Amino acid sequence: MVRPAVSILIVARNTGPYIGDAILSARRQTRRDIEIVVVDDASTDDTRAIAERHAAEDARVRVLDGPRAGLAAIRNASLAAARGRWAAILDSDDLLHPSHVERLVAAAERTGAELVAANMVSFSIEEGVTRTSLFADTPDWRQERGIDLAAFVRSNGVAAGGVSTGYLKPLFAMDFLRTHGLEYDLRLRIGEDYDLVARALAKGARYIFLPRPTYFYRRHAASTSHRTSLRDLDALMAASDALPRLTRDPDVLAAVARRTAGIASAQAHGRAVEALKARAPLAALRALGADVGGWTLLARSIVEGGTRRLSRGAGGHGTVDATPAVLAIGDGAPDLPGQRVIARAAPADDAARAALADGLPPLERIVVTAPATLDDAGYAMAPAVDRVAGSDR
Question: DSSP readout, 86-146?
């Protein structure tokens, strides 16, 4: 059997509404010498059946049983099964742009980096309409750049603000991970990606960030990253001693100390919230004590909760037109009597690429005309594309 160049690793449990689109986006990569490893961890919905249908259609898809021992253990099972030189992470509710793997591998080979991550488009689908935003959209993230360990830790504090690089889904050099015995920390249900990348950087890995967004990060109510429990925070605190055991760099240690203090504040906040829910205000005060960070998080929770209630009372986004449409990208919109046609210009930069799908209803197909390209069409996140003369990849 020919060894694939890249293993796209998907772990899943009860993500039936999304996993079909995730696998399809992996199958449609422009880089063809790939395998797609799906580790299903005892799903009770149709997740397994959907994955196996894709495996029946495409020999590059393998569906494996998970260990039933937590998220990190499932991710480790996917790493152990990877046969490629590179491993690309794809969460089972997210999507890949068709050129995602090709671009990451090209950057890794050009730079010699052991880790490469692309910018992301954060998206949600509300009332049938897509809402998007560019994940890293500040001036210092608009060009290719390296990420060192100190900068990586600083950007991943509990309330650090700015770009949280731990959310990025990197391409890993598998030989590097195996040489250094690196895998996911079994204690972690959240922050496991951050922890693995941080330890890889501490072992000498080079990390390159690409500003063009080719990973689509779905936001929805069941997202793991939106559900942080006290147990999760306790695990993060327990794992926070990993880097001090691997490096004595003062910048890194200072960043780790700030991050650890942030986790402690989040723990105080979480305990205070639990006490308030139990109608025990004195216990909440004791939990917060003199922790300024904890008080700040509590105030933010109160403000955000009030904002959400006001939004619901005002009807949220209001009435939207979710009628299926044809998207025309480029200079010319086709004449399609009886069909709803939405015309958009070819995106000129990464912000425009990320915004291409913003406000779009379900698409029946996409029509591409010059100066737009088929690469641009990938940002509409729809399966059908009609190539028109004058467009190219």
Answer: EEEE--TT-EE-TTHHHHHHHHHHHH--SEEEEEEEEEEEETTEEEEEESS-SGGGSS-EE
Q: Specify the pairing of strand 61-65 against strand 34-40.
A: parallel
Provide the pLDDT for residue 389: 42
Q: Would you call the peptide bond into 371 cis, given omega within 30 degrees of 0 as the criterion? A: yes
Count of C-beta atoms within a 10 Å radius of residue 248: 8
Q: CA–CA distance from 355 to each of 120, 122, 379 (Å)? A: 12, 10, 8
Query: pLDDT tens for residues 226-277?
Result: 557 888 888 888 888 899 999 999 999 999 999 999 898 988 888 888 888 8
CA 321 to chain centre: 28
How confident is the model at residue 296, as a pLDDT?
83
Q: Which domains does the chain have, with CATH numbers?
A: 6-225 (3.90.550.10), 230-313 (no CATH), 325-387 (no CATH)
For residue 195, give Cα distances in angstroms to 71, 141, 192, 354.
Answer: 13, 22, 5, 28
Alpha-carbon span 85 to 173, nearest angstrom = 6
What is the b/e burial string over 71-110, where b = at least 16 CB atoms within 10 angstroms of the residue's CB?
A: bbbbbbbbbebbbbbbbbbbbbbbbbbbbbbbbbbebbee
Q: Distance between CA 19 and CA 307 in Å, rounded?
A: 32
Find the length of the chain.
Answer: 393
Give the chain's residues under pLDDT 50: 308, 312, 389-393
- Helix/strand/coil for 64: strand
Residue 317 CB coordination number (10 Å): 11
In sequence order, the 6+-apart residues with CB closer than 8 A to the CB of 373 are 346, 391, 392, 393
Rg (CA), the chain: 22
Q: What is the pLDDT of residue 390?
A: 44
Q: How many CB atoms lie within 10 A of CB 20?
A: 18
Provide φ and ψ at 123, rounded to 5°: -145, 155
Q: Look at residue 365 and give its three-state secondary structure.
A: strand
pTM of the model as a whole: 0.90
